[in-house]
Amino acid sequence: MTDTILVLLETTPARTLTRSAAGLLAAARELGTAVALVVGDGEVATLADEAMGAGAERVLVARGDATALTVPVVDALDAAFDRVSPAAVLVPNSVDGRDAAARFAARRHLPLAVDAVGVERDDQGVLARHSVYGGGYDVTSASTFGPLVVTVRLGAIDARADRVADVPVETLDVAASDAPAAIIERVEPVVATSARPELRGASAVVSGGRGLGSAEGFALVEQLADALGAAVGASRAAVDAGYVAAAAQVGQTGVSVSPRLYVALGISGAIQHRAGMQTAQTIVAVNKDPEAPIFAIADLGIVGDVFTVVPQAIAALEAKRS
Ligand SMILES: Cc1cc2nc3c(=O)[nH]c(=O)nc-3n(C[C@H](O)[C@H](O)[C@H](O)COP(=O)(O)OP(=O)(O)OC[C@H]3O[C@@H](n4cnc5c(N)ncnc54)[C@H](O)[C@@H]3O)c2cc1C
């Protein structure tokens, strides 16, 4: 059985690798030989170097038309798959990654495992681990035919790999498939108004729920997030009440996160919320109701009023820093 693991790395609009690269390459290194695929429309040498820095043992670079959505990436995956005959293909479980992985698996008639929180290997091949039904069950999927294409949840893999010496970089000749693709006509950069980390893939998340009572009250969530250098999340009830933008919603119909630290403030812990955060490594909950279901999954539960507990936590963090 081949030990090559093909890893699709994504790029940001600023032409750097996204943060998912390091975890994916580290996971691939644990399974076999990590071969990175980077697709770019311009200078790809810096992307290749970034991939090496994140642990790639071999780098394939492909030029693709950046004005077409997904299809150039699928064409590059197609060519890379033929070049290296991998035992599995790892793709970030981002919006674009899911699109590319699904199209690629369909095109090559390969099995697809989505939203994995880990990967492993047995003597028959690569396996994907998933956390399902609101984090209530851990399941493992294996393919009965062909190498598995796996989308890996952003932030789910903590491992990191070292740079290796003498990494070969190969240019792929990619034959354009002419499959229908949406064309990007215009890109308008939105200037980030916050220095906070992005929710997807963040290593720490502070989320607030209906218990914050108002948009003004929700500022407390943002203050604790800033004190911890964390991203801001929310329950659906907080979003529906207009305390915070819908992009912050964590859960079944929101974003799934797997941070090292998840702090839930004034969140009851409904199954639909837990579905998006239960794989966090450490869960801290503050709720004034000792019976709140969030305490069943919390590593540290504080029964109390958020408006009493959280300012003390922020003050303690600031005192530690000064
Ligand atoms: C199909 C479907 C999909 C859904 N998808 C999602 C989803 O993606 N994400 C999501 O979050 N929900 C989702 N929901 C909604 C979910 O069922 C819950 O209604 C929601 O998560 C509740 O949000 P909450 O915990 O903020 O509010 P509540 O359930 O009202 O809980 C508020 C909590 O705050 C506590 N509290 C109140 N005041 C204070 C205080 N001063 N200090 C400390 N604690 C206080 C209360 O004790 C309570 O536990 C979905 C529901 C459905 C049906």
TrEMBL record:
Residues 5-187 form the Electron transfer flavoprotein alpha/beta-subunit N-terminal domain. Its cofactor is FAD. SMART domains: ETF (SM00893). SUPFAM superfamilies: Adenine nucleotide alpha hydrolases-like, DHS-like NAD/FAD-binding domain. Heterodimer of an alpha and a beta subunit. Keywords: Electron transport, FAD, Flavoprotein, Transport. This is Electron transfer flavoprotein subunit alpha/FixB family protein. Coiled coil: none annotated. Belongs to the ETF alpha-subunit/FixB family. InterPro entries: DHS-like_NAD/FAD-binding_dom, ETF_a/b_N, ETF_a/FixB, ETF_asu_C, ETF_asu_C_CS, Rossmann-like_a/b/a_fold. It comes from Microbacterium mcarthurae. The electron transfer flavoprotein serves as a specific electron acceptor for other dehydrogenases. It transfers the electrons to the main respiratory chain via ETF-ubiquinone oxidoreductase (ETF dehydrogenase). Gene3D superfamilies: HUPs (3.40.50.620), TPP-binding domain (3.40.50.1220). The lineage of its organism: Bacteria, Bacillati, Actinomycetota, Actinomycetes, Micrococcales. It comes from the Bacteria.
